[in-house]
Design goal:
about 525 residues, six-stranded mixed β-sheet, 16 helices, single chain, alpha+beta
Length: about 525
Amino acid sequence: MKFGPRRPADAIGGVTVHALRRNGLLLKKGTAIGPAEVEALERAGVTEIVVVQLEPGDVSEDVAAADVAKAVAGDGVHVERAFTGRANLFAQRPGVLVIDRAAVDRVNAIDEAITFATLPAFKPVVEGEMIATVKLIPFGVEGKLRDAAVAAAQGSALRVAPYVIKRVGVVSTQLPGLASKVIDKTLRVTAERLAPAGAEIIAERRIAHDESALAAALQELLGLGAELVIVFGASAIADRRDVIPAAIGAVGGAIEHFGMPVDPGNLLLIGRVSGVPVLGAPGCARSPVENGFDWVLMRLLAGLNVTRADITGMGVGGLLMEIVTRPQPRVPVAEGGRNVAAIVLAAGRSTRMGGPNKLLAELNGTPLVRIVTEQVLASKASRAIVVTGHQADKVEAALSGLDVSFVHNPAFAEGLASSVKAGVGAVPDDADGAVVCLGDMPLIDSHLIDRLIDAFDPDRGGLIVVPVADGRRGNPVLWSRRFFPELMTLDGDIGARHLIAKHGEAVTEVPVDGHAAFLDIDTPQALEDARRG
């Protein structure tokens, strides 16, 4: 292949290496030069152009890319027409992408001119998803290199394994303290995981966390035609002799592997009973966030065998995310409980009140913001931080004589998030967390704040504590320091509810009676109702 500058007349049959713009003429990169192009170049006064010209034995970039792509494509893979030296490959059906890593490496080792890139091996894919691309770097390549790359693929380097398991049984073991709604949520999350594979839960059983009860449930689900059984234990599997593996053995099954170097997902167990795979799910499988359980589940649904070597080979790339509920290095807890600060948000403009600052409105002769702050000071909170903004001097005057620290939010007009960030930024470094209180919720009392602080237990995964009544979550909310960086990313007039939903596994709910956790004074009518109440 020849590369370099040519007179237009000598460039016929070549391809432009660079885009050229001159005297109204535009030739794009990759334009084939023919008589018409030569005439246009000469008319524009171009005396020299850089081109690539193929020599005998060379093949064009599109031909080479297409040939290599067809060679690497296996079952369930569609190759798109090559263009500008690139041939993209797409999944023809939903399934799991299976890749021959050695074949991919062989193709890429042939020559720097030929590149072959894929999605990660064993990734679940949907129909029409792009899964790989073959790209030729130059505009052409020696035919012998193309042939070598085709041979290196050995017929195919990647395929899409279709989902074949459709009928799934689920067993949930129970111990005192495990709420039924936890199991309900687990089933919903599991059904959502199975849906892309076209699989469904044909039956679910809730039983005692007991070997004989679980053995009976396994046999029942297998008798109903389950092609895969998932067991969610009320307690994590701690040993091969624990309840779940023991029950698998009791019905004649075998444990193929316990544990995996993927986090979250360490405590996964793979067994088999009468040829049917049985998964002992790790606790993280109750969450919809991707974890090691997904890596194994989707392979099994595609009928792929997951061996011990497959599992032990997952360590590189196996650290998926920080688990927010994982205990931090232990530190002594001071007598009297955790060190929890309180933030009182008192910076708003009270726009819905039609003029007056609601925080200064009085209830039984006391400003709302002072009522809230006095309750905070009477609670177990270690200190009180009041965030001011609108009419800061008046708010501070309303709190005169109280042992609080003030932090001014100059961006209060931007919305609630700016005040949350100002308050979080003022929390002392020695605090384990902070309870965020709204200055316009006068029915919140010290007893409720104390209950939130008592329920705050980072060592057991209780990192966010919220009051709840009739399934509805209210205020205030206690946040572990673990979430301060995320709270500092909030924006606008929206609070942190989405973070509570995102980290559902870290939430502890405190049941409350009445409407104190839900009543905020936003309007003149609400204030009047509170005064009458």
